[in-house]
Amino acid sequence: MSNDNPDGQPLDIEYYETNYPYLNVKKNLLNNTLSKWRRAIAPYNPFAMQQIPNQKRMGMGIRNGNGFYFPDPYPNRVNWSVFFPTHYDPLSEQHFSNHGWQTRKDAPMFTALAIRAQALPRGCVRQIEQFKRCQSVNGVTKCQEEADNIISICPKWALEGLKEKKKQLDKIEAIQTLQYRSVLEVSPYNKGRTVKDVSDKTWADGHRDNLRPDTMWADERYTNITQAEINEAKKRVAARDKATGRVKEAVYQVHHPDLSSSHLSEDKPLYP
């Protein structure tokens, strides 16, 4: 604060020469005219909006048309107050409070409770990177000094975390190895078989026309049944119906006006 400013006025008043500059970032004919008119009548207007703060009164924010201007969020946890441009206090402010249109606050991130891995100290990470670099260039046997630096610089909790991480990675590698071996293992069905044993049939060979077109079942589920077995099964069904008193329903032939034009299917033997 300069010595020629005994009233505690900020340097902005020396530039704008008033506490009511009516700064507006939205530039158009209407806003520029209104800002000039409001600036002119500010000394006589009891409802004038003060934008330059002083010891007696707090300054309001910069206007953006009819609302207040707030800048783009920074890539950190800095929050911007729209109505009063004050500093954001994370100890007293609520992170997810419902603000109004004129009093909202915007920031790219908010501090929230989350579960994540604990980061190692920077010095410990630097030593680990040096050891990996030496290991890739010179080999493990020539990097004993870098390995000792990790043990001496990293704290105890960091070394225990590295140990647990190594155990977890070894466990994952063992599980993946077992899965890889189980996938490569030949199944019992394919043991003793070669590529020559694989049929050269395609999906077209599975059509009904290429399987058994003269039977009810297109597949081979009843290929081992003979005609004699079928006749015996019919006799057993007839004897059972007679014993239970079941009367076989009469099947009436469909009436056609002209029987000469109708096609009557002929019975064919089940097996040729």
What does this structure look like?
It comes from Paramecium tetraurelia. The protein is mainly α and about 270 residues long. Among the domains are: about 10-70, no CATH class; about 70-110, no CATH class; about 130-185, no CATH class. It has helices at about 10-15, 30-40, 120-140, 145-155, 155-185, 225-245, and strands at about 65, 65-70, 80, 105. The strands form two sheets. Strands 1-2 form a two-stranded antiparallel sheet. The chain has a two-stranded antiparallel sheet with strand order 3-4. Helix 3 (about 120-140) packs antiparallel against helix 4 (about 145-155). It is elongated, with a radius of gyration of 46 Å.
User: Are there runs of 5+ residues with pLDDT below 50, and where?
Assistant: 1-6, 106-110
What percent of residues adopt helix (DSSP H or I)? 25-40%
Order of helices and strands: HHEEEEHHHH
Q: What portion of residues belong to β-strands?
A: under 5%
What structural category arises from helix and sheet content?
A: mainly alpha
Please state how the strands of the largest beta sheet are arranged side by side: 1-2
Radius of gyration: 46 Å
Number of separate helices? 6
SSE topology sketch:
Elements: H1 11-16, H2 29-41, E1 63-64, E2 67-68, E3 80-81, E4 105-106, H3 122-138, H4 144-153, H5 156-184, H6 227-244
Antiparallel strand pairs: 1-2, 3-4
